[in-house]
Amino acid sequence: MPSSDPLPPKEGALFRKLLKCYELKQYKNGLKLSKQILSNPKYTEHGETLAMKGLTLNGLGRREEAYKYVRLGLRNDLRSHVCWHVYGLLQRSDKKYDEAIKCYRNALKWEKDNLQILKDLSLLQIQMRDLEGYKETRYHLFMLRPSQHASWIGFAMSYHLLRDYDMANSILEEFSQSQTSIEAHDYRHSELLLYQNQILIESDRLQQAVDHLTKYQAQIVDKLAVRETMGDLYIKLQQQEKAVPIFESLIRRNPENVLYYEQYIAARQVTDSSAVVSIYRVFQEQYPRALCPRRLPLNIANGDEFRVVTDEYLRRGLRKGIPPLFVNVRTLHQVPEKAAVIEELALQYFENLTRSGHFSRDDADAGVPVEPASALVWTALFLAQHYDYMRDTDRALEYINVAIDHTPTLIELLITKGRIFKHAGDPVEAYVWLEEAQSMDTADRYINSKCAKYMLRANMVQEAEEICAKFTREGVSAMDNLNEMQCMWFQTECALAYQRMGRWGESLKKCHEVERHFAEIVEDQFDFHTYCMRKMTLRAYVGLLRLEDVLRQHPFYFKAAKCAIEVYIRLYDKPLKSETTIEEIDIENLPPSELKKLRSKQRKAKKKAELESAQAAQAQVKREQHQKSKQPANQETDPDAPQLDELVAEKLERTDDPLEKAIDFLKPLQHLAKERIETHLLAFEVYYRKNKLLLMLQCIRRARAVDPAHPEVHSCIIRFVKSLTSAAKEEPFNEHVQQVLDKATKELIGSKTPQQLNDEFIAKHNASILHLYEGARSLYELDNSKKAAAIKLVTSFNLTKLRLEEAIKIYTALRDGDVFGDCEAEAASYQQACHERFQYARIFRNVEELEAQLQEKEAAKLRAEEEQQQLIHVDSSEPMSVLATAAAAS
Amino acid sequence: MTEAEEINGREEVEDDEQDQKQKKSDVKRHDDGAADLERVTDYAEEKEISAANISSAVEQFGNQRNKENELRVAKEKELQKVQVKKEDIELIMNELLVSKAHAEKVLREQSGDVVAALEAIISN
Questions:
Q1: Cβ contact A502:A524 at 8 Å
Q2: CA dihedral (A86, A91, A92, A97) positive or negative
Q3: Helix, strand, or coil (residue A148)
Q4: Residue B45 exposure: Cα atoms within 13 Å on the Cβ side
Q5: Which of A23, A171, A739 shows the shortest C-beta gap to B14?
Q6: Which residue of A107, A438, A529, A858 could cross-link A81, Cys pair, CB 3.0 to 4.6 Å?
Q7: Do B120 and B110 touch, CB atoms closer than 8 A?
Q8: ipTM score of the complex?
Q9: Segment Disordered: which positions (chain B) (predicted)?
């Protein structure tokens, strides 16, 4: 179809040149050419030229002008597919895919069989997961160019993604019929065959899949995939005898693949535990260096047999000094009997090693050579880790101290000691030990990161950043560099630290940064739509598409989203005052002593603010420098990336609609993390505040589907009923809504009143503190006058049966006064009681004690510094490094 | 097809090239392996399938698809026949904070019964 507004030959030639220039990225020349055409008075309004001028400007990074010209061009020539296509390309480069799709569709209206536009459209459709649309476009392309390979592949894939396996398979089958000559070792052909096989398996046509594999075996290059799939299929088809030799040979190839052993045992159809153990025994003989056949029987064995295999396994590990030995057997602790056996064995080793240097008395009696001296340290470490897992802090510390006395330079010991304190509720002491460990090997990235993480747990963001800076790029702020590297463990921990400190804006900033990483990862798949099709890596491609669909299921996203939602809820409940009105307190009516206090407080605050603003200014300068240094690189790498708004903490925490922002984070969780009850509980909190009764109901139903006995579900129900009654009083519901609500309430609580329901709940669950807590919370919620009873319900619970996390939850609820109203006295006495029960936990210790401790430490540090200063005077060979450590220590 | 076809052709080529360049510069950022990546991104010439082998298949798939389309159109028609009230759609949107398209779809699927539609969304 000719252009709707054709140019005469001279201008036409210029226009072609213009296209050529754009193609070669000679934007400046392109711009000149467009001006030449437009300078002809007859064609100043020529739409396609104007549009191309816009696109060229976009190439130069002049985005606003680009939009202006492209739109102008389009307006002048609405019937030109070129203009629409150009507009689509511009939108695409701006990542506005929905808009771009519309533009392409308009372009196709004027030129329905244009291959390039169709291809472009299909890319956007697959990126946006418009699978029906993708199928249509792919069909169109197929009909236009049935002679091209890519047409067939894309056509088949569009059906596969829609789970129409039959059609996908028959397209591929037809396609391979038309393939006449196949070269040897044709990787693309081989991948195509395996892809077809995957479709057969997914459509549950297993026998056909086996036949297909057998037939084409010779043409498939990925021999491993053939064998693995074959073996798996035989097991599923109940032809186990054929699977046995396959997995035998696979194990020979790689004796450390857990899955191979599992499938081998499934193929042998052995279920009895000692029979399975003897199978592993055979493999132990065959592959003496392999770990799997030694570790796996521990999962299966029971009773005495478990003791025997575990004994062998632990001795081997302790003799060799394998640091992660405990981590390796930790999962066994889920079974109490197994944990008991492990404890018994380790204690026996410890006793005998101390006495005679043997693992057991029998060894000593038999005159076996003594074990290496290090075995004792590793055994002590193992015991410390074991007791730490059991949350027996005192004994854990006892053993770790023995180990440290024995070998003070072993970094693992210090890490474990830190971990024990962390689990005992003292993040500060924990980080001190990690810092010590870190100082022993400053070149070790693992311990460096661990140390940073522990610092974040102790709310020491600045220090954590400094530690990380030892491994980040020089000349850039560590925080920015970590963001650039998508270092998400750091950012989520950072967000949580800020959340604990009540620095809401900073916390949100980190959460949004993590969210942006995920958006970027989704964005990055765009390149693969063309690449994978061309390279025929279709199995991997489908895998990628499926991964991207559920990407935000990732724990990092979950953590960040949960944190953000909690912060937004907090900001909704207690909005921050606008910055100017904070300081206006009624000074005149204060007694002089109070006034004095206030003044000194204000002075301090002012000083702090000055310091902070100075720091902020410094940071700003740094950032600008960083921006400058980054800019040229940026233009080079991705000129198309639209500039995102900078995340500013102060703006984030003063958002107009925190609940809407929370919902943005919530939606992916509701979609992808349905199986986690926290998702629905968080969702409830949001919709409860929005007073959307039907949505509350939805959350409760979903939560109950996950775990009907979860304690928090109960208080959700109570609050739902409460909102229901108060909303009904205000104005009658729409009759349809009323119907749904009536039915649902009946299902949830029958004809009971909320009070009755709550009383029953408390009576039923009086042995579980978390249930009692929710019951007490509801008791107060329903009737404020029952405050004392509610508090008594939770505080009178037997403390010895309480876990640390539970105690913290209750104490913070009492302290913050947002669950049971103001109750300082009760909180203080509960704190005291908890302190006796959990002596290491920092939260229960009182402030003066902590401050005294801190001062003592400072003093000790100062003394140490002075000593070191003196040392420097004595020995000046290494002054810098000592100074540096002293500075780091302070 | 004349000039217009060419125009689009060129733009696409340019685009592909841009993609490739982008990939290359990405690699530079990650230091090594640039040579490897260039090798794998080189463009292989598309082999053509002779038309004789496939014309029947093309026809067959065309028919198959037409059948699918008929089914879909019939289903859509069925759905479009359902009478839905604007106020019902708005109620669903407002109560459950869903998009208009979603609300309308569910309502049609439930044959216009607004209570059933609300139920369907909250129990899903």
A1: no
A2: negative
A3: strand
A4: 3
A5: A23
A6: A107
A7: yes
A8: 0.71
A9: 1-38
Task: State whether B12 and A120 contact (CB < 8 Å).
Answer: yes
Query: How is A149-193 classified by DSSP, letter by letter?
Result: HHHHHHHHHHHHHTT-HHHHHHHHHHHHHH-----TT-HHHHHHH
- Residue pairs between chains A and B whose CB atoms are closer than 8 Å: 139
> What would the DSSP string read from start to end of B74-110?
HHHHHHHHS---HHHHHHHHHHH---HHHHHHHHHHT
The minimal CB distance from A178 to the residues B53, B65, B122 is found for B53
- Given phi > 0 = left and psi -120 to 50 = alpha, else beta, which region is A204? left
Find the length of chain A. Answer: 890
DSSP letter at B48? B
pLDDT of A584 above 80:
no
Beta strands in A278-359 (DSSP E): none
Q: Cβ of B10 and A697 within 8 Å?
A: no
Tokens of B49: 């399938």
Q: Are A76 and A50 in contact (CB under 8 A)?
A: yes
Inter-CA distances, B81 with B72, B74, B84, B107, B109, Å: 14, 10, 9, 12, 11
Residues A832-875 pLDDT 10s: 999 999 999 999 987 777 777 778 877 887 887 777 777 666 55
Q: What is the CA radius of gyration of chain B?
A: 26
Nearest-angstrom CA–CA distance, A427 and B20? 49
Secondary-structure breakdown of chain B: helix, strand, coil percentages, each rounded to the nearest 5: 75, 0, 20
Architecture of domain B83-124: Orthogonal Bundle (1.10)
How far is Cα of residue A465 from the mean position of the Cα atoms in its chain?
Answer: 20
Quick: pLDDT tens for B24-58: 444 344 444 444 444 444 444 455 666 556 677 77
The DSSP secondary-structure symbol of A576 reads P
Task: Enumerate the domain spans of chain A.
Answer: 1-112, 239-300, 301-408, 472-575+647-673, 850-889
For A13-49, what is each residue's pLDDT tens digit?
A: 899 999 899 988 899 999 999 998 998 888 888 999 9
CB contact under 8 A, B51 and A85: no
Q: Take residue A871 and report the two structure tokens written for it.
A: 């040392």
- Flag whether residue A484 sits within 8 Å of chain B, measured between CB atoms: no
Q: Which of B7, B17, B114 sits opposite A736 (nearest CB)?
A: B114
Write out the two tokens for B83: 């009478």
Task: Give pairs for A788-793: CB < 8 Å, separation 24+.
Answer: A790/A820, A791/A820, A791/A823, A791/A826, A793/A762
Res. A303 pLDDT band, cuts 50 70 90:
very high
Whether A77 and A4 have beta carbons less than 8 Å apart is answered as yes
Is the model more confident about B77 or about A343?
A343
- B6, B12, B13, best to mutate vs chain A, most A CBs in 10 Å: B12
Angstrom distance (rounded) from CA A779 to CA A796: 16
Structure tokens at A346: 């380790």
How is A370-426 classified by DSSP, letter by letter? PPPTHHHHHHHHHHHHHHHHTT-HHHHHHHHHHHHHH-TT-HHHHHHHHHHHHHTT-
Neighbours of A58 (CB within 10 A): 25
Q: Which residues contact A367 (CB under 8 A, 6 or more apart)?
A: none
Fold of A1-112: 1.25.40
| β-pair partners for A148 | B48
